[in-house]
# Entry
Amino acid sequence: MNWATIIIAIILLLPASQQSFIRSESVEVKVLSYNPTYDFWFFMPTGRPKVVTQNVQNAYWSARTKGGVCFTDLWFYCATGIEIEE
# Structure
């Protein structure tokens, strides 16, 4: 095997890292997630929200495959930045 083949194989075998949070101007943006097995809401990379209102839950279910729902000091759609009313 030549070196190029070996290097390409190593690159393909490395796992892709997922971006679980966004850091913008020293403000950590947390991505909302849900665990259906234990029925609780949590943030990626860490933490749990105090309250997830029904409106935020509905937004999560409609946007979970399209960028998700994020939180700083307010709820918003991660992909578009549009605020979600609580």
Q: What stands out?
A: The chain is about 25% helix and 30% strand. Helices lie at 3-13, 54-63.
